């Protein structure tokens, strides 16, 4: 395509219904870029291949980094969660406490089992506690055989806006009740309140 044909094409585009500035910019770009592209077609192909490869590698690296970088989990006691409720909202937590006697409810006919219970901090530990409140927990998933009222547990999950801690499936761990040596009583800070 020689210069005369390119000028005729630009004039034809200028009569089109598109805005004149867009047509003029497109036509001038064509006039300037066409000889360069014709002369350096193989260099342009190589540059485009290299740019496409770099873009694909960068996208793959970003996807891999996003998938492998885990969000942090915070290990907290019940009283710490109650004191920092707003700051911990929606974050991944491991909450340590004792199951309050009489608070355990199991929903029937749901598989895997769905539980609702309350957690309370240990009665006789040395840490200062801002409150002696309880934390409501909902959990659905595998339930350890050692789980029950008055047991010490750790639940993995997130605190929702209503203030209920929502455990993730298979995120319930129960402490062994000391069945190996019944003559030795546990230290007072390991005793759950009645």
CATH uppermost class of the largest domain: Mainly Beta
Full CATH superfamily name of the largest domain? Nucleic acid-binding proteins
SSE arrangement, N to C: HHHEHHEEEEEE
* Low-confidence region ranges: none
Q: Order of strands side by side in the largest beta sheet?
A: 2-4-5-7-6
Strand content: 15-25%
C-alpha geometry: rod-shaped
What does this structure look like?
The protein is α+β, with helices and mostly antiparallel strands and 194 residues long. It has two domains: 3-68, no CATH class; 73-190, Nucleic acid-binding proteins (OB fold (Dihydrolipoamide Acetyltransferase, E2P), Beta Barrel), CATH 2.40.50. It is built from five helices and seven strands. A five-stranded mixed beta barrel has the order 2-4-5-7-6. It is rod-shaped and about 95 Å long.
